[in-house]
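Reviewers asked in the last cycle whether our approach scales beyond single polypeptides. To address this, we selected a multi-component target totalling 802 residues and predicted its structure end to end. The input consisted of the following lines:
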Amino acid sequence: MSMLEAFEILIVEDNPLDLEMTLRGLRKANIANRIEVARDGAEALEILFCEGAHAGRRIEDAPRLVLLDLKLPKVDGLEVLARLKADPRTRAIPVVMLTSSKEQRDLVESYQLGVNSYIVKPVDFENFVAAARELGTYWLLLNQTPGA
Amino acid sequence: MTQQPPPGATRQAEGAELLSLLERADRHVLWVMKLDPVERVDYVSPAVERVWGRPPEAFLADPHLWVASIHPDDQAQVAAAYGHWLEDPANRRYDVEFRVVRPDGSVRWVHDSGTAVLDGQGRPVRLSGIAEDITERRLGLAALQDESDRLGAIVATAPTVVHSFHIGADGRMWFELGAARVAALFGVAEAEVRRDAADMFTRRVMPIDHDRTRDLAMASGRDLTPWRAEYRIRHPTRGTVWIEGHSMPTRCPDGSTVWYGALTDITERKQTEQALRDSQARLAAVFDHMTEGLVVCTPDGVLADWNPTALRLHGFETQAQARIHLREAAKIFEIHTLDGEKVPTHGWPLSRTLAGESLHQHEVRVRRIDQGWERVFSYSTSRIPGDDGAARLIVIQVSDVTARRAAEDEVARLNAELEERVAERTAELQVAVRELEAFSYSVSHDLRAPLRALDGFSQALIEDHGKALPEDGRRYLGIIRETAQKMGRLIDDLLDFARLGRQPLTRRPVDHDKLVRHVWDSLAAQREGRAITFCVGTLPPSEGDPALLRQVWINLLANAVKYSRRCEQAVVEVGSVVGDDGRIEYFVRDNGAGFDMRYAHKLFGVFERLHRAEEFEGTGVGLAIVQRIVTRHGGSVRAEGEPGRGATFRFTLG
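The resulting structure, written as structure tokens, was:
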């Protein structure tokens, strides 16, 4: 299993500062799982559905968790979520929406599309790290997906 | 048959002649009776057969026949007269009328009178007399009597007062026939009517009619022409009475004039006529002065009667101009529907009504071709049936609704324009709202990201290189983090506030007592380490949006907790009062920092703060949110306070 194929967490995030903080937070929470990063929605879909540059990957090697930003270039987070949940091969992958939005409509739409969890990125970084850690621990350690 | 010897030859000759006359007479019966030695008929002239229906010999043969042939009803009377006469024949006369019954049963009236021949001692020796057949005269009298009786009955009972009125040669006036009823009619004594009617006329006949009526009577008497007059009298009990008189004068030989005629009480008729005239006058006044036009048409289509309004509306100056047939009207008028479609003559209001319809406020455009104007008229028509059910009259009401129609058109146009403008403005607002939403959305996402980085990397710097930094450096980083976090809260509060305006309001029953206690519990973190006396009074339930009202209680109670922080013995009190208008006013009171009433108007503005941040932290949005929620519920909020003595916030919910 190459590094390219074997990752456990996919982070979809376009903001490099947020990305760096998220990675730092996970690292500090001692979540040492292999992490793949997509910088926009289109790339995320290629990775998840093994298309384009990621055509060599096997779809069965699904990540155990997707941290998905809502606002993304090209294809936005809600669409990525919709595609993921619409396909039986990827439907079981836990997706946590990670967003700065507190907008009600985003939240409602996310849950309608089948998101597993939703957290608002707080300005207070300590809280954010705590939230990310709890989420990561829960979804990676406690919640066993059918395919895992 | 023996004869009394005449006193002389001449007398004898005269007697013979007289006798011969009596012998030939047919209605006068001469009779002679002897009393001595027995009472018997001695002679009876031949005329007796014509009157009694029996020959003279029958009486000579039967001494009782004379009495027996008298009508049984009259026998007693004749016997009495006869007996009375013979008691003193020298001084009494026999004179009686009675009926005789003939053998065939028929009855004749007889006037019988006689004289007695007396002897030396004054005793009657012989009686003689003449019986005259007066049947014809008696019957004539009876007929006359009957006629008179009938006339009397008529005079007494006829609805009109039949009377005779007399003016003597000396000028005296009086009534004879019907005097009693004339007196009753005038309300005076009968004696006065019979004695001096002129005075009665003066007193009773109304001055307005007196002279005219009198002059007519005088002229009638002078020319012997019929008199006819209507005049009013003032009756003592009935008030004004109208009398109609008709009579015919005749001149009498003594120079007086007598009118036979009738007086009739026509008061009721006059009153009815007057009522009718009054009614007609009122109707005419209405017809003439009503602001609605009225045209009365005959069933054959003639526009017969127009009131002034109808004339004016249709451009006519006189009734004569307007009294035309529908065919003629069609030459000077055109009718169009409101939509401008021409209406053929058979579709005109009158034509349709003649055909059996009744129209109600039927609006059409009427154009007078020869005068060149067009107006919008509203026609209502009705058919007035005669006794046979067919239309006797058609009544058309018309009013000019041009101005109203124009106003309605204008209103419709303005409405359409307004709707268009509303639609435009709504579209504009929708665009603005969408822009605002996009703006909020963008703010909530994009404005917070840099703050997160500021906070996050400051934190990373402290964590990773904190030891390398001097004390001041670490403090500065702390300030950066605090400031970034504060800005984050400001953004959140602002977005919350903006969201309140668009969120739909749900209305459900809200248990404020329960809600307040939950909220108080949820504020445990803020209350940590403090002993606050919390009093909850009566909190009646109300209708409202539970989530939003919860926010109201949170903000007010959090404020109370926050601003009473410096009190040694903090008291927070919640309750309600019922206002004069029956509305429930809820309140939250604390004994904390309070505020200066001079700045009360600033309390509920967004980002308005009455305390410095180092005294009491906060973004200045909480009370603005309270006000917005309360206002959206149709209520109002107010506050009262005093620096250092606490504040009370009161609100109603619609």
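Chain B touches chain A through 23 residues (CB under 8 Å). We regard this as preliminary and will revisit it once experimental data from Aim 1 are available.
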